[in-house]
Amino acid sequence: MVTPRERLLIALRHSEPDRVPFDLGATSVTGIHRVAYQRLRRALGLPEVEVRIFHTSQQLACVDDDVVKLLGVDVRGVRRNPPSKPAIVEWQDDEFLYYRDEWGIVRRMPRERGLYYDICESPLSNAEGANDIERHPFPDPVDDAYFAGVREEALKLRSEGYPVVFGSICPGMLEMCLWLRGFENFYCDLRANMKLAEALMDKILELKLRYWEKALSLLGDVIDVVQEGDDYGGQHGLLISPDTWRKLFKPRLKQLFETIKRRADVFIFFHSCGSIREIIPDLIEVGVDALNPIQVAAANMDTRELKLEFGDALTFWGGGVDTQRILPMGTPSQVKEEVKMRIEHLADGGGFVFSAVHNIQADVPPQNIIAMWEALREHGVYR
């Protein structure tokens, strides 16, 4: 009998296991919002539980073992702990709940019917040069607290037959620079203050390199996949020009991924939303093994074409069902048809891990999640 770990590794090596591996909740980009998760548990007839949140800003739920077993989820994630020095500060006013994270970024969520925390204060918004970057109190990437107990958790999951995914210290260089500087500021930096922009990118890269050096020295033999990512695409195209991306981001990604692969025999899972077809060959070139989420509603992200063009070199981790329109607003039968189509496009020859396009959001009816799962069980079998 094929174990979940064997199933995933076969797929990542571009062969066909017994069925398409299924990921729900292993990463911060293949998860489910707490509201949708509560509704799903009720629809599945599972007991009420206090939902544990593992990603504060996105309000993602930890997927409990009973759901994992009932739905046959194959992929499990282990997550770093909070830092040793309490860094997250929470407060509220009449309208919002707030928190400041370990990077100094402030987010807020409406107290009434709030679903997510959005950035409202960027700590480096007034920075003028590289000296201001160096003075900022960044988190310690080799803090022992991050890794306490993580190896034991990974070993437990391995002993149960699951593959293990472990995530980065932070999102990618573009995303973190936008959050730390403010979106308008950093986009302007890329044209008018390149020295500051590169200093901030290099700082994020330095922290990532130090983090992965330590993480993989401790965990490299007990994890299978490392999660990295950034957001380079919008609905209609790249958020920055391909020339700028290749000049600034590609060489830094190459350095990061080469370091990871030197330290451990792991697959690199890389997330980027949006229309990014133009740089997919570059991502393959710098070492990406699995691409997520395959935003099928974005321009030039047709799953059949992507599989034909890149399927020999790249595993598609996601793209199982559109989460912009079909999953929240379609009927269960429409969801099933969509899932069937995406499996037909992406599953042939392996190199496909099923998950929705990004996280399942709060407005998705549980009947549609169950329809997604039923269609996967029916059509995701290799014959």
Task: Kindly summarize this structure in a few lines.
This protein has a single domain, classed as TIM Barrel, CATH 3.20.20.210. It contains 15 helices and 13 strands.
Please characterize this protein's 3D structure.
The chain has 383 residues and is an alpha/beta fold. The two termini are 16 Å apart. The chain has helices at 4-12, 34-43, 65-71, 130-135, 144-147, 150-159, 173-181, 183-192, 194-219, 242-263, 280-286, 303-310, 326-329, 332-346, 366-379, and strands at 53-55, 60-61, 76-78, 89-92, 96-100, 106-110, 118-121, 164-167, 225-229, 267-271, 290-292, 315-317, 352-353. Helix 8 crosses helix 9 (194-219). Strands 3-8-9-10-11-12-13 form a seven-stranded parallel beta sheet, sandwiched between helices. Strands 4-5-6-7 form a four-stranded antiparallel beta sheet, with no helix packed on it. Strands 1-2 form a two-stranded antiparallel ribbon. It has a single domain, classed as TIM Barrel (Alpha-Beta Barrel). It is globular, with a radius of gyration of 20 Å.
Estimate the global geometry from the Cα principal axes. Answer: globular
- Overall tally of domains: 1
Strand content: 5-15%
Which value, in Å, is the CA radius of gyration? Answer: 20 Å
Write the layout of secondary structure elements.
Layout lengths: L3 H9 L21 H10 L9 E3 L4 E2 L3 H7 L4 E3 L10 E4 L3 E5 L5 E5 L7 E4 L8 H6 L8 H4 L2 H10 L4 E4 L5 H9 L1 H10 L1 H26 L5 E5 L12 H22 L3 E5 L8 H7 L3 E3 L10 H8 L4 E3 L8 H4 L2 H15 L5 E2 L12 H14 L4
Parallel strand pairs: 3-8, 8-9, 9-10, 10-11, 11-12, 12-13
Antiparallel strand pairs: 1-2, 4-5, 5-6, 6-7
